[in-house]
C-alpha cells in the first residue's frame, strides 16, 4: 500500500507547492522539527507514523465534497458518524447514520496486514438524500461515515459543510455498551495523547502539559465552547422516540435495556478529550469563525516535498446553525440500528421545527443543564 501511495503524494506535493507555500512548505527540511501551527500536532517521528500521516494528508487534500446545496427551500442537515476503529469493524454511530439515509452504505473494511498505512479512503462513505420528517416535511441530508483519525474527520466534515451549507450539524460517536443517549452540551480545546484508529498517530502535547491543544491559537475564553441547540425540544423528542421503540429487540436485548434514556453531557470532561471531542471542537470552532483558515493535522517533523499540514477554511457564515454531538451505546444491533435512526430523525425534526418558530431558539450549551459531569471512560 505504501508503494502505491507514493506517486500520488509526489504529484500532490508538486501540484500544491504554490498553495502551500504560504504555510511554510517552501523551506521545509526532512527530519526538522515542524514550526508551531494552528493545529493538533501528531507525532510523525517514526517511519510507520509518517507513512500513515502521509496517507491521511493525501486523502484530505484530494477529497472533494460530495454533497451540494440544491436549489429550493428545503432545510439541509449534515450528519456524521464514525467507521471502523482498529479491528472493530462495526461502529454503531456510523451504522445508525447509514440507516438514516437510503443509499449510504456503511464501509466494511479491515486493517492492513502488510504493515503499510491504513488507507482512510475505503473507510469513508458519503451520500446525500432526502428524508421526510413528520413536522417539517422533506429535508436534504448529507450523511457521512468518517475515519477515526485525529483531525481527518473534522477536515472532511468541514469540506462538506462548506459545500452543503447545512442548517443543522449532528455529529455522532459511541460510548459505553449500554447507557443513555448522551447529548453533549459542549466541547473542549484538548486532545488526550492516545493513538487514534490507525494505532499509529498520537497527538504531541507541549512540554509539561498532559493534553495537546486542538486549536493552539484559540483564546483561554474559548478553551471550552458550548454547542448550539434547542436543548429541551431535542432532548424531549429523543426521549419520546426511545420510549416509542423500547421493545425493539436484537441479540436478546430490548432497546430499553441498551438505550436507557437521555442525558446531557457537561463540559469539559477529562474523559471526553479523545476523537469524538476532536471533531466536535474543531467543527464547532470553525463554524464560529467564518473566514478563518485553520491549519489542521500538523506533522511533528517536516518532510521535504510533502505537505506537513492541511489548511481548511469555512467561507460560509454558519454561526447561526445549531450543532451538537451525540454519544450512542455500542451494543445497538440489527433492527435497533433502524430504531436509532428513528431517534435521530425525531431529534432533527424537533430542531428544524424550532428553527421554523415552533419551539425555543437554539442556545449555547450550559452546564446548568448537565446530567453527566464526570466519566471514567474515554471517547
Summarize the structure.
The chain is α/β, with parallel strands linked by helices and 379 residues long.
Describe the fold and architecture.
This protein has 379 residues and is α/β, with parallel strands linked by helices. The protein has one domain (2-259, 273-365): 3-Layer(aba) Sandwich (Aminopeptidase), CATH 3.40.630. The protein has helices at residues 2-15, 17-21, 47-62, 92-100, 152-164, 231-244, 255-258, 275-288, 335-355; strands at 41-42, 75-82, 125-133, 137-146, 168-174, 179-184, 186-188, 191-192, 211-212, 224-226, 228-229, 249-250, 253-254, 259-265, 293-296, 298-299, 310-313, 323-328, 363-364. The strands form seven sheets. The protein has a seven-stranded mixed sheet with strand order 3-4-2-5-18-6-14, sandwiched between helices. The protein has a two-stranded parallel sheet with strand order 1-16. A hairpin with a 3-residue loop joins strand 3 and strand 4 (137-146). The longest helix is centred in the last third of the chain and has 21 residues, at 335-355. The chain is globular, with a radius of gyration of 20 Å. Residues 1-36 have low confidence and may be disordered.
Number of helices: 9
Count of structural domains: 1
Overall pLDDT metric: 89
Can you tell me the CATH architecture? Answer: 3-Layer(aba) Sandwich
Strand content: 15-25%
Topology, element by element:
Elements lengths: L1 H14 L1 H5 L19 E2 L4 H16 L12 E8 L9 H9 L24 E9 L3 E10 L5 H13 L3 E7 L4 E6 L1 E3 L2 E2 L18 E2 L11 E3 L1 E2 L1 H14 L4 E2 L2 E2 H4 E7 L9 H14 L4 E4 L1 E2 L10 E4 L9 E6 L6 H21 L7 E2 L15
Parallel strand pairs: 1-16, 2-4, 2-5, 5-18, 6-14
Antiparallel strand pairs: 3-4, 6-18, 7-10, 8-9, 11-19, 12-13, 15-17
